[in-house]
Write a structure and sequence with these properties.
Blueprint lengths: L5 H6 L6 H7 L7 H6 L4 H4 L1 E4 L2 E4 L7 H13 L2 H9 L14 H4 L8 E2 L2 E2 L1 H20 L12 E5 L6 H9 L9 E5 L4 H8 L7 E6 L6 H18 L4 H4 E5 L2 H7 L6 E3 L16 H7 L1 H20 L6 H15 L4 E6 L7 H13 L17 E3 L11 H6 L6 E8 L5 H20 L17 E8 L2 H22 L10 H15 L10 H13 L4
Bound molecules: glucose-6-phosphate (G6Q).
Length: 538
């Protein structure tokens, strides 16, 4: 382990290190056919296990020398040191001067993580207990709405990190849902979203969970006001406390909105939005799957945290996969990464990872503000298999761009159609084989497949709450490792601010409300004019 100080980590560009030189010195064209024929044991050696996950990276274009060089780079970039700083509650989110402690959300009772001199674990468990009591009451019907009827529908209103995690997990864990409770997720400020959800709901049996870390997000507050008006039109002002709860860090804004702060579930500024599904932001999920399953979900993530914290770097799954991602992005120059879950329940997982990865590592300056010297976060995208096979896999197999892919699959489904499942998994495995090895058809160029398209295969016995927690933590830590290599702040998101600011300026120009004169370019002005002259407000 190379000894480096925090300041050195912040200012040293890995590209100028000897370890990086050693890595790039290994770059030469290699085909997976050659790598496999040179090492009959590769399919066994390039597999790591972590909790319930079997992670196979044999079909990545790496060999022992490259893996060793990648670990050398991780070492030199101070990955272990920065990881320890995160777990120790140091302010590693430097631009916002905050600790980064989603790992504390799944730390068992009794352990301690100190932030600025205070152990945060007891507070985490206090909130989990309050959430559990509340979830149980909604689940067993002892929490009733204003008319005395039990709640059958929960509507989570939130956006970004306050939506994607719980919405993804609610779908992923559909096999564990309470049979008499349905959840909906409203995020978009597009009124079609809330209109579609509210249509057909009975206000007397509906609860709204307003999820917003800041409680100032315009989309969420707009949707929450619409929901409140819908409820009070039917049941009167007095019904709000029985039908509205809040999840937030901002008590004042929650009270200002008119939600009883006794019905507020708290989290903390050291939980980033896209890392918050295991905080109170998971309340709607907990109501659906129950506190026990939610605890298993947290335990799954914690198992991966422990692995990440303690496994030696060469056997550390998030480190190895994160570094293979660096190899693909920075040495081989692949710009995107596909996530291909062979599980319909994980349909929203690629979108969830898109935010996790692209909002975290879509950065162009390093921690010290200097420009990065190499590509940072990849473009992440994907769809569940086998649907994608009949759509975009053509490009994966024969396009000019190479897209490294993560395949995710399970030995056992939650349904009884084993024949379907065998077919599904056969497709997953076949795709990894076809991408890696291709097929030569001499004289038939249109029917030839060059192969050498890298993939990782992640398998688990079944998609349980724990396994979902494991997958989430795995990807969180991969993103962390890569952020360390690129020397960026993976935990801020200044890039989304400018658009928000400009939207607030443009809104009164569209509606004609009084506003300060605003200068725009000719294209923007013409778009505003077009909208105004085509709008009917009757
Ligand atoms: C995530 C981002 C962002 C955030 C939303 C919602 O890391 O910060 O997606 O989650 O903008 O913010 P609020 O929870 O404050 O409404």
């Amino acid at each position: 382990m190379v000894e480096v100080s925090d300041n050195e980590i912040m200012s040293t560009d890995i590209a100028s290190s000897p370890a990086w030189g050693r890595l790039t010195g290994l770059a030469r064209p290699r085909h997976l056919r050659e790598l496999f024929s040179g090492d009959p044991d590769r399919g066994r050696r390039y597999v790591l296990e972590m909790a319930d996950l079997r992670v196979d990276f044999a079909k990545q274009t790496v060999d022992d020398d490259i893996l060793a060089a990648l670990i050398g780079v991780a070492d030199e970039a101070g990955v272990a040191q920065r990881r320890d700083a995160m777990f120790a509650g140091e302010h590693i989110n430097v631009t916002e001067d905050r600790p980064v402690l989603h790992v504390a959300l799944r730390t068992p009772q009794g352990a301690s993580i100190t932030v600025d001199g205070q152990d945060v674990v007891p507070a985490v468990h206090d909130v989990l207990r309050r959430m559990g009591d509340f979830a149980d009451r909604v689940r067993d019907g002892s929490w009733t709405g204003a008319t005395g009827q039990r709640i059958h529908t929960v509507v989570n209103i939130g956006i970004g990190g306050s939506d994607l995690g719980p919405a993804m997990a609610y779908q992923a864990l559909e096999a564990y849902r309470h049979p008499d409770l349905t959840a909906h997720f409203v995020s978009n400020v597009d009124g079609a979203n809330i209109a579609g959800v509210l249509a057909g709901l009975d206000p007397a049996q509906t609860m709204f969970v307003i999820s917003s870390k800041t409680f100032t997000t315009i989309e969420t507050l707009t949707n929450a006001r619409t929901a409140r008006a819908w409820l009070t039109d039917a049941l009167g002002e007095g019904s709000v406390p029985k039908h509205f709860v809040a999840v937030s860090t901002n008590v004042d804004e929650v009270a200002e909105f008119g939600i009883d702060t006794a019905n507020m579930f708290e989290f903390w500024e050291w939980v980033g939005g896209r890392y918050s599904v295991e905080s109170a932001i998971g309340l709607t999920l907990m109501i659906s799957i129950g506190p026990e399953r939610f605890t298993e979900f947290l335990a799954g993530s914690h198992a991966v945290d422990e692995h990440f914290r303690t496994a030696p770097l060469p056997k550390n799954v998030p480190v190895v996969l994160g570094m293979i991602g660096v190899w693909n992005a920075n040495v081989l120059g692949f710009d995107t990464k596909a996530v291909l879950p062979y599980a319909q329940e994980l349909a929203r997982f690629p979108a969830y990872l898109q935010q996790l990865d692209m909002e975290s590592n879509g950065k162009s300056v390093r921690l010290d503000g200097s420009p990065v010297s190499m590509a940072t976060g990849p473009i992440v995208w994907g769809e569940p298999g086998t649907n994608g096979q009949h759509a975009f896999y053509q490009l994966l197999h024969q396009g000019t761009r190479v897209v490294p892919a993560d395949f995710i699959g399970f030995a056992n489904p939650h349904h009884a159609y084993r024949e379907h499942h065998d077919l599904l998994v056969a497709n997953l495995i076949a795709q990894t084989e076809a991408l890696a090895f291709g097929k030569d058809r001499p004289g038939e160029p249109h029917r030839s497949f060059a192969g050498n398209r890298p993939s990782t295969t992640i398998l688990a016995p079944r998609l349980t709450p724990s396994v979902l927690g494991q997958l989430i933590a795995l990807y969180e830590h991969i993103v962390f490792v890569q952020g360390c290599i690129w020397g960026i702040d993976s935990f801020d998101q200044w890039g989304v601010e400018l658009g928000k600011e400009l939207a607030n300026r443009i809104t009164p120009e569209l509606t004609g409300e009084p506003h300060d004169a605003v200068e725009h370019d000719s294209s923007t002005t013409a778009l505003i004019d077009w909208y105004r002259s085509n709008t009917r407000r009757d």
